[in-house]
Amino acid sequence: MKEKIMNQLQNFSKGMFVPVLILPIAGIIIALGNILTNAKLAEVLPFLQNDLVFGLGKMLSGSLVSILTNLGIIFCVGLSVGLAKKKKAEAGFTSLLVFLVFINAMNIFLTLTEKLVPADALRGSGQTTVLGVQVLDMGVFLGIILGIVVSYVHNKYCEKEFNGAFQIYGGTRLVFIILIPVTVLLAVVFSFVWPFVQKFINSTGTFIQNAGNLGIFVYGTLERLLIPTGLHHLVYTPFLYSSLGGVAEIGGQVLEGSRNIYFAEMADPTIAKLSASVIWDARGLSKMFGLIGACLAMYHTALPKNKTKIKAILIPAAVTSILAGVTEPIEFSFMFAAPILFALHAFLSGAGMVVLNILGIRAIGPNGFIDFLLYNVPLGIEKTGWPMFILIGLGQFVVYYLIFRAVITKFNLKTPGREEEGETKLYTKKDYKEKKETERLSEELASVIVKGLGGADNIVKVDNCYTRLRLIVKDSSLVDIALLKEETQANGVIIKGDNVQVVYGLRVNGVRKSVDEYLGIEAN
């Protein structure tokens, strides 16, 4: 049962990548719009004073904010596509139809039961308008719930076919037929149940907010500690996109979730300073600074004969962490060789977020330095306090370096470069070149990967997330961890029951594609 629950949680976490990874693009475009409409920046760059440029900036920032007020449908479609095993396009289309059925069914039921509040009294009523339809305010949770329901029914019946006159009602059409009464029933049930759920969510959010720095520390620490399981996304996603991360009214619209709030505040020139809820997305501090100190400590404590080799490996890993916020190459370099360092890393990451909150710093830096520059510099120092973010980051860099170096030498930990024989591999430079993200691995290498997983007959399911190849195997004892690391440049292998995760970083899409082709699995 434990393994089954873990598998389902990891599948859900993987499915969440579809909507979660696309939403930061909206933030980048909003940031670009802010640059084009920034009055102070226009004084330095005269071309920004052009009305056309200003209008373009307003269109970019203003139009993308609408995404933040429709997260329900975005998560519904995105999650159903992410969780669908086959016919993903049809699953996405079905989820759109189901979403429309749900909100209209709930509106009709609330009207019949006289539970709808007046349209001019929505604030604080627990109701809102979604796509112009007044319903209970379920926010992003509506999309998540419907996305799960649609994907479950879709995976179960999307290939069910009938003969004769009923043939037209088979396949994905059958899925929609089944979902119509299910969706209407869900709309009725949630009309009664959701107000109680919302009270629980609000009370939980209040508890977390009242926990203050302790809550932030636990959040930041857990977000890192769960990296090995791949479930860390389940920690931060509710805070970024639901009321757990805060509720604010901006430009006449009520927004929930840390990221939704600060995206809207970025686009609103009347906001003098970003709100405190931005702290839930300050996870980038250790990515840009702390782990770089860890890399330097590992380099300085490496054996003299290995320093040149380990430097060539650590530098690209550090650059990737700084610029793109991809930390697993560094984290997996010491996670298994020296677990105590990973525990210290999680502790220091949470502590760094607490320091930012104590000092009232409102800078945004969730995914590396590129995002940090785009989000913060155009907004100005008063609105974000970004120079202090860098200062705290430099302090964290020093703390990581001193602690990691002391612990490594004190306990003689076998971090990369300290092995007398053999080597602990990280990614090589070519692994991090952008072109390698989509490059197909050779058939020969794919055969080695399959061999390392116990052979084709041992593989039940192949999937992947942002950086990991995720598999279900029949017998995990057949997995050859050493082979996968040494021959396929995997940076880590995690085994939980019959669930196996092999960390390949940014090139995982190419790995997944080549393995699928080698096994004869058709692309979904």
From TrEMBL:
One of its GO terms (molecular function) is protein-phosphocysteine-sugar phosphotransferase activity. Residues 3-420 form the PTS EIIC type-1 domain. One of its GO terms (biological process) is phosphoenolpyruvate-dependent sugar phosphotransferase system. The keyword Transport applies. Residues 443-524 form the PTS EIIB type-1 domain. Its main location: membrane. The chain crosses the membrane at residues 20-39, 59-84, 91-110, 130-153, 174-197, 340-365, 385-404. InterPro entries: Glu_permease_IIB (IPR036878), PTrfase_EIIB_Cys (IPR018113), PTS_EIIC (IPR003352), PTS_EIIC_1 (IPR013013), PTS_Glucose_EIICBA (IPR050429), PTS_IIB_1 (IPR001996). It is found in: Cell membrane. It is a multi-pass membrane protein. Keywords: Cell membrane, Kinase, Membrane, Phosphotransferase system, Sugar transport, Transferase, Transmembrane, Transmembrane helix, Transport. Pfam families: PTS_EIIB (PF00367), PTS_EIIC (PF02378). The active site is at residue 465. This is PTS glucose transporter subunit IIBC.
